[in-house]
Design a protein that fits this description.
It is a single chain. This protein has helices at about 15-20, 30-40, 45-55, 60-80, 85-90, 90-95, 95-105, 105-140, 145-160, 165-195, 205-220, 240-265, 275-285, 290-315, 325-340, 345-355, 360-375, 385-405, 410-415, 425-435. Helix 2 packs across helix 10 (about 165-195) and helix 4 runs parallel beside helix 11. With about 450 residues, it is mainly alpha-helical. The longest helix is centred in the first third of the chain and has 33 residues, at about 105-140. The two termini are about 35 Å apart. It is globular.
Length: about 450
């Protein structure tokens, strides 16, 4: 039986990241596409996002509308990117070199590595907090934050060192267990804390745009990971099946969690992971320790993903070190950032991660335009910096300067729109259309060139 077969360790050398997966190793079962896009969203983040809608002034009707629209908008590019993995056999960053060139892929790859380190820290802060509370209940002793965090970070690092097969196994088997546990927690919390949120007035257009942008970014953030976990599928796998399974995984985890956050917002003191953890623990009653254990474990599925993809991205950025060393460096930096930022979690989330995600929208716009509308005639990969790479850089900087909304900086267009953040949409469509109309598409490429 497949679940009794231990996962094999991925190649440890840097060269393995830039090469396509050998055909004899492309044996991944297609159901893993669902789990690899489903399990990383299992955690308090979705609950926080749903609860945040109420603090923005949305009632249940508009909150539900924002959840559906935002998740579809954010998940569709990720699902479309997943279909690039089987025929190329490449990681998502390496696959984008057909549009950006070997040199042009380095800036987004480096940004993705930074992004993964940031998410590593964001996921681990509430997980370590939950682990400390769990141990104080069951063992009567609360370890210091740095130690609880170190235990989780070590487990995540080991999984990422082992590589693709181990990460996929965690997504499926640990993910299934977390799904069952979170279902019980969700039903229990909804039973005790459901109060449909009401608002005195319908939200304005600016508020709805901001809410949809936040929700879209929740799934869009996975766009730079997607084919990392589909490239081991056989090359002839129908792309439609890959897209639908990835879409089902993303929407099947994000939408229910955010709706529960919306429904239980009244019982949450503030839209933060710590407040969500406390609220869920209280609502669960005797199941409180299970809530804490599940939240702590949920960080392993998410951060094994982050650490593994980060190791690929660091190598794609031109840092030619063994994959195992790249994974260790990533985990250590994520650990340090989590320890340093634990006391200012909200600022870490908004000021660091939301702004850095502005590069993802134009990058994936170019990648999808190239893959679905470009010429796939086999030619060598562009060796240097393409016009597509220039478009990526220009649009990324322009959308941050004009459209971003954060505590660090608010662009003039965002101020004019009353704080509404439409930079993701503008960046995606402007980059995709500019790339498509500029004639910048390379006339095909060869994955192993």
């Amino acid at each position: 039986m497949s679940f009794l077969r231990p996962p094999s360790m991925e190649e440890l050398g840097a060269a393995a990241v830039s090469r396509p997966v050998a055909s004899e190793r492309k044996t991944m079962p297609i159901d893993r596409v669902f789990w690899s896009h489903f399990s990383p969203n299992l955690g308090p983040g979705g609950w926080v996002t749903g609860a945040l809608l109420v603090s923005l002034g949305l009632d249940f009707r508009f909150g539900l509308l924002a959840i559906v629209i935002g998740n579809v908008v954010g998940a569709l590019p990720v699902a479309l990117a997943a279909a690039i993995g089987p025929p190329t056999g490449l990681t998502q960053m390496e696959a984008s070199r057909r549009a950006l060139g070997r040199l042009g892929v380095r800036p987004p790859a480096f940004l993705n590595w930074i992004y993964c380190v940031g998410w590593d820290a964001v996921n681990n802060v509430p997980a370590a907090t939950a682990l400390i509370a769990f141990l104080s209940i069951v063992a009567g002793a609360a370890p210091p934050f740095w130690l609880a965090l170190g235990v989780l970070a070590t487990l995540q690092m080991v999984a990422s060192i082992y590589g693709h097969d181990m990460v996929q196994a965690l997504q499926k088997y640990l993910g299934a267990a977390l799904l069952a546990a979170f279902t019980v927690i969700g039903l229990q919390s909804a039973w005790h804390g459901v109060a449909l949120p009401h608002a005195a007035h319908p939200p304005g257009i600016a508020t709805m745009l901001l809410a949809v942008a936040i929700l879209a970014s929740f799934n869009l953030s996975w766009a730079s990971y997607s084919s990392d976990y589909t490239r081991y599928l056989p090359a002839e796998t129908p792309p439609g099946r890959v897209v639908w399974l990835a879409l089902a995984g993303l929407l099947g985890s994000a939408v229910p969690f955010q709706i529960l956050g919306l429904l239980t917002a009244a019982s949450i003191a503030e839209p933060s992971p710590t407040a969500v953890i406390a609220s869920l623990q209280h609502a669960a009653g005797p199941l409180g320790p299970m809530v804490l254990a599940v939240i702590a474990l949920s960080s392993i599925t998410g951060n094994a993903f982050n650490d593994n993809t980060a190791s690929y991205s660091l190598i794609s950025a031109g840092v030619h070190i063994p994959r195992v060393l790249a994974a260790i460096v990533t985990a250590l930096l994520g650990y340090g950032l989590a320890v340093a930022g634990a006391g200012r979690y909200a600022a870490l989330y908004t000021d660091y991660l939301v702004v850095t995600m502005y590069w993802i929208a134009p990058w994936i716009g170019i990648v999808l335009a190239d893959w679905y509308f470009g010429d796939r005639t086999v030619h060598p990969v562009p060796p240097g910096w393409t016009r597509g790479a220039s478009i990526f850089m220009i649009v990324s900087v322009a959308t941050i300067l004009l459209f971003s909304t954060s505590q660090l900086y608010t662009g003039p267009v965002a101020r004019w729109l009353g704080g509404a953040d439409i930079g993701y949409y503008v960046g995606f469509f402007v980059a995709a259309l500019w790339y498509g109309r500029s004639g910048a598409r390379p006339r095909g490429w060869k994955a192993d060139a």
